[in-house]
């Protein structure tokens, strides 16, 4: 299961537990639990892959999907700590269309005006929704830079009521793939646990452009992908 405090950001205090003894240790020592500060418990979807979607919606109900990013590490690693590709590298058209359809439906249902970020998990071609946040995310500047489309400026003008989505063009200028690389500062904090998991540990991110999936850097990332979680 995934266990997490309901009052934190960045995955702080989150953990994946595989048995009752680990759950007991978490509940008694890892978090401050009370009626005002509950712990949320969810089933953990093993061997799934995670996707980030950023979109912009306006007051007319129109929705433009800015970008879909595929995490290289398995689902369970915090989105801020995972390497991710733009566009996805291993996603069939059937699942891709489901992600797009769900994004539009959720944005409209929430009456979003501006940016929205949705995180999906995919397993056996089934699409699961992890969470939807009607706000800017850390991936918006990445997508805007990679595609050379000023999504932040567009969203701001829409939120101010100055424009609608049809006032802009969306020509994506990315050739090949852009990879989001997390940046860690473990060298400055030698005692920190370096295992990846649902608690975010990165302190920044960088962008790398590759022409195709034969690139040695991507091949190494994909080969070495791991959650580094011990059972």
Task: Report on the architecture of this protein.
It is built from 5 helices and 10 strands. The protein is α+β, with helices and mostly antiparallel strands and 231 residues long. The protein has 2 domains: 2-42, no CATH class; 49-224, D-amino Acid Aminotransferase, Chain A, domain 1 (2-Layer Sandwich). The strands form 2 sheets. Strands 8-7-4-5-6-9-10 form a 7-stranded antiparallel sheet, sandwiched between helices. It is globular, with a radius of gyration of 19 Å. The N and C termini lie close together (12 Å).
Helical fraction: 10-25%
Name the helix and strand elements from N-terminus to C-terminus, one letter apiece. Answer: EEHEEEEHEEHHEEH
Q: Find the structural class using helix and strand composition.
A: alpha+beta
| Structural domains: how many | 2
Q: Can you tell me the CATH class of the largest domain?
A: Alpha Beta
Oligomer: single chain
Poorly predicted regions are none
Rg estimate, integer Å: 19 Å
Write the layout of secondary structure elements.
Blueprint: E1 2-5, E2 15-16, H1 20-30, E3 39-42, E4 49-57, E5 63-74, E6 84-86, H2 93-109, E7 114-123, E8 126-133, H3 139-147, H4 151-159, E9 177-183, E10 204-210, H5 216-224
Q: Tags for this entry?
A:
single chain; alpha+beta; D-amino Acid Aminotransferase, Chain A, domain 1; 2 domains; 3-stranded antiparallel beta sheet; 5 helices; 10 strands; globular
Could you provide a short overview of the structure?
By secondary structure, the protein is α+β, with helices and mostly antiparallel strands. It has five helices and ten strands; from the N terminus they run E-E-H-E-E-E-E-H-E-E-H-H-E-E-H.
């Amino acid at each position: 299961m995934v266990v997490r405090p309901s009052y934190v950001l960045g995955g702080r205090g989150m953990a994946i537990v595989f048995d009752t003894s680990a759950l007991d240790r978490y509940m008694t020592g890892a978090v401050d639990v009370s009626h005002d500060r509950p712990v949320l418990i969810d089933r953990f979807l093993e061997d799934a892959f995670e996707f980030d979607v950023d979109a912009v919606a306006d007051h007319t109900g129109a929705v433009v999907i800015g970008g879909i990013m595929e995490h290289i590490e398995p689902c369970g690693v915090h989105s801020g700590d995972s390497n991710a590709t733009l566009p996805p590298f291993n996603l069939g058209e059937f699942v891709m269309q489901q992600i797009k359809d769900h994004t539009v439906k959720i944005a409209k249902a929430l009456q979003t005006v501006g940016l929205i970020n949705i995180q999906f998990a995919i397993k056996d071609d089934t699409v699961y929704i992890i969470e939807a946040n009607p706000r800017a995310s850390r991936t918006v500047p990445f997508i805007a830079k990679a595609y050379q489309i000023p999504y932040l400026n567009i969203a701001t003008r829409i939120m101010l009521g100055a424009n609608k989505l049809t006032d802009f063009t969306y020509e994506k200028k990315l050739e090949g793939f852009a990879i989001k690389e997390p940046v860690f500062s473990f060298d400055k904090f030698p005692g920190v646990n370096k295992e990846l998991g649902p608690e975010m540990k990165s302190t920044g991110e960088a962008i790398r452009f590759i022409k195709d999936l034969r690139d040695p850097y991507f091949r190494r990332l994909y080969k070495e992908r791991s959650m580094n979680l011990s059972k």
